[in-house]
Design goal:
With 123 residues, the protein is mainly beta. 4% of the residues lie in helices and 48% in strands.
Amino acid sequence: QVQLVESGGGLVQPGGALRLSCAASVRTFSNYAMGWFRQAPGKEREFVAAITGSGENTVYADSVKGRFTISKDNAKNTVFLQMNSLKSEDTAVYSCAADRDIIRIGLRAADYWGQGTQVTVSS
């Protein structure tokens, strides 16, 4: 069983930045690919970014490419999402996901999910 706890959300002005963290309770974190998703009110859950277990390979949604960066610290069992140049349309609950197979993350079929952290971009 893997438990995931997100942190770092909050209120930020357009053009600002936030860094989200997701801490995982797992023995071998490097065995797990990780992903970030978001869900705005009235909308479906949307893929944001994913990273392989080793941290060597990443993939992003077109809507965040060039603004967001996903990274992984296997020594600290933590995955991060650095969000820059935030826009109002980035407002959502952001959740992290874990799975041994990054393909399942891309299919929104990851085995483990966090509860989410609210990000609000507003002036």
